[in-house]
Fold this sequence. Notes:
By secondary structure, the chain is an alpha+beta fold.
Amino acid sequence: MDSLTQAALGGAVGYAVLGNKVGRKAALWGAILGTVPDLDVFLPYEGAVEAFTYHRGFSHSLLVHLIISPIIVWLLTHIHKGTSTFKYRWFWLVFLCLSTHAVLDSFTVYGTQLLWPITEYPFAISNIFIIDPFVTIPLLVGLIMVLLPKIQNITRARANAFGLLVSCIYLGWSLIGKLIIDNNVESALAKQGIQSQHYMSTPAPFTTLLWRSVVVVENEYYEIYTSVFDAVEDVSVDAYPTAPKLLIPVQSEWGIRRLQWFTKGLYSVRLQDDDIILSDLRMGVECAYAFNFKVAKQTDSGVEVGSFEKFSKRPELSDMQSIWQRIWDPSISLAPTADQQPPC
Length: 344
């Protein structure tokens, strides 16, 4: 999730755990700790693939959080010397602020290595978009109430608890919405005779009422939009070509295998000029994917390993209106127009 949401979550959790003992300090330290796991983005990774696939690694591990929490507690109780009698509460504040960050990240589609170093598997429930105001705003309102002066402690505690409760209920709804969408998409695919090798569903930007699914088969992939209000026959299925055979001459290259593993098979391969591009289909939309890598190059002597340069394409902001309209109207198409078709 975005940094603002993680800070708001950390502050809300911190105050819920220790606010009645140390006051607003609990919220402030919670907000700080809620952003700490994402500091791994500043590490000097060797290349673009490493930065992409090692992010949300050790710093998001629940096991690492468990180990480092006592050290952070020792530092905090030395900073706030009069609070050492609450060291067990401090421990739960630290551990929960770090771990809820990681768990919330695992609700997005990116992938979070919750059990590093036991396994590097990137857990991704993908039931929430990376930015969703219905998660953030209740947390933020409760946290603002905590930080405002001249508010009674009982009012602060209730406002903070209410914000946490509303966000948790919304996250619970998103899981139910995902089940509805997956069931409808499965039925729509069966009616069209499409058998998926790799499948995922994730909410469209800023909502859990419209979902984007991706299905990958041998030389084709499908981008699917489904509203929670759709009947099975309303599900939008658009097909696009992919050319995974282009990778055969360089398929043993570590960077390529790493990307195939991290994307869980949800990638496309295309030739653009002389570059062979691998795109992560999970994040973005057709013609505007956030993570694209130049993994190979076609030369006169054959296919050679590429630079693995990463580049992004962002959707047009004007598309947001169409996304909102598609929630209510299944006749709205979100597929690229003729002038946007690949190579986009």
